[in-house]
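W.,

You were right to be curious about this one. When I first looked at the sequence I had no strong expectations either way, so I just let the prediction run and decided to look at it fresh. Below is the sequence, 230 residues in total, followed by the output.
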Amino acid sequence: MAEAPVAQKPFEEGIEKLIARLRRAELPEHVFNIYRQDDPELDARGGAAKRRENLRRYLRSLSAPKYAFIGIAPGYRGARFTGVPFSDEHRLCLTGSCYDRTSKRENAYREATAGVVLDLLGTRTDVVCWNIVPWHPHKPGEPLSNAEPDAETINYGLEALEFFFNRLYADTKVVTVGQLPARALEGFKVQGKSLDIVANFRHPAHGGANEFRRKTAELLGLELSTDLDE
């Protein structure tokens, strides 16, 4: 007699439903669905499936974070090829790690923003990272570029964000990273309740790295080197 399947725990079930939502999202042509699509010129075989698994592993490791850092969208040198917000292949997909590279590029992609964030957070479990738009907006016809998401795309992202907080991280304090997330979350509510937004940090890109480091260190009680570089 076959054994009954093991029931998923609510948190793990929520992760699976979130990933399913991300995967099936129908997006504008200039927004690449990193959890469903593979670009044969850029992605290794099964790239989208690997990115879904990377995200699954990441979220499973963060069952009760205190803070959620909410950024803008995956960059083409970062989460576009990892599936994990604020990360890049060079730092996340190390030999022997549980995360897989998905780009065809000989050398792993490196992103400055991912470097700043991962160097600070490392393996901490009190911060989960996410984006207002969890897919990759790019310039039309330029898949290896970044573009600010338009209002339509942000609305799609907010639907996923509502599920993210409602099912996974309802009691998490929010730190917006950049002005776009701060604006997008003005008046945003989950089940009629406003998010607990405790800070807005300058985005590490475009000269904001040191300010982001200092504010994150202050929030998390970290000690920083005195020789910070932009």
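Here's what jumped out at me. The helical segments are 10-24, 47-60, 89-92, 112-121, 151-168, 179-184, 209-220. And, maybe more interesting for your project: The chain has a mean pLDDT of 94.

Coffee later to discuss?

I.
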